[in-house]
Write a structure and sequence with these properties.
38% of the residues lie in helices and 15% in strands. It has 252 residues and is α/β, with parallel strands linked by helices. The protein has one domain: NAD(P)-binding Rossmann-like Domain (Rossmann fold, 3-Layer(aba) Sandwich). α1 packs parallel to α2. About 17% of the residues have low confidence.
Length: 252
């Protein structure tokens, strides 16, 4: 089902081309790999929208990115993915700017949370983790190819799955969505790909000691975790090799 690719072993931050004139939205860009991704795109002169739900943290991230990169074209875009109303509002705010959109990086997500529902009544990990102008790119941040299925009838059943099974289903939905979106845009200059960033976030206090220890010892540093999404978002190879509808894993 999945065409698994690895980013070029030679691709580094220094290989990101000049992005002058490119408009980018990065969700969940106030922290972690989303922040690093937004920062490096801004460093290469992109016009970056930092899309996240917490205004204070979002504006702080914007200020820091501007300070580090010297690029003033960085803005906060309010977006709460647990609310479809907020998603619609963010869309309207962006469309009102009359700007093209060249790169969309769907980075925001949660993992290992206790069972809760979003305000729209959808199990939180599925609702938040799952629920453009050509030539453009859409990069969906997912996880290792999930070894699970999706039981849509039981998504909102708090007793049906443990928290990581729910996470697995949400990440599989990301990949399936990317594949279908790629099919629908097959005749467009829009390149849709999925990325496993090899980094864990949102591990709650209830997470076992061994998981936390293994995460600390073996998970890729946040700066490296952003490299595969930056590759898919900026590398000329994506256009040159017509890489679309693919699933990218980091190079070991």
């Amino acid at each position: 089902m999945f065409d698994i690719f690895h980013k070029s072993t030679n691709f580094t931050i220094n290989d990101i081309p000049d992005l002058q004139g490119k408009i980018v939205i990065v969700t969940g860009a106030n922290t972690g790999i989303g922040f690093i991704t937004a920062q490096e795109l801004a460093r290469k002169n992109a016009y970056v929208f930092v899309a996240c739900r917490n205004q204070t943290k979002g504006e702080k991230a914007v200020d820091e990115i501007k300070r580090v990169t010297g690029n003033d074209k960085v803005e906060y875009l309010p977006l709460d993915l647990s609310s479809l109303k907020s998603v619609l509002k963010a869309t309207e705010l962006f469309l009102d700017r009359k700007l093209p959109l060249h790169i969309l990086i769907n980075n925001a997500g949660i993992m290992g949370t206790p069972f809760t529902l979003t305000e729209d009544g959808i199990q939180d990990q599925f609702g938040i983790n799952h629920i453009a102008s050509a030539p453009s790119r859409i990069v969906n941040i997912t996880s290792h190819v999930p070894k699970c299925g999706i039981d849509f009838e039981d998504i909102n059943n708090p007793n049906a799955y443990n928290t990581y099974s729910r996470y697995c289903q949400s990440k599989l939905a990301n990949i399936l969505f990317s594949l279908e979106l790629n099919k629908r845009l097959a005749d467009k200059e829009v390149y849709v790909n999925s990325v496993h960033p090899e980094i864990f976030r949102n591990l709650k206090d209830s997470t076992g000691f061994m998981v936390k220890l293994i995460t600390r010892l073996f998970v890729t540093p946040v700066e490296n975790g952003a490299m595969t999404s930056l590759y898919c978002a900026t590398s000329p190879e994506i256009f040159e090799k017509n890489l679309r509808g693919k699933y990218f894993e980091p190079v070991d």
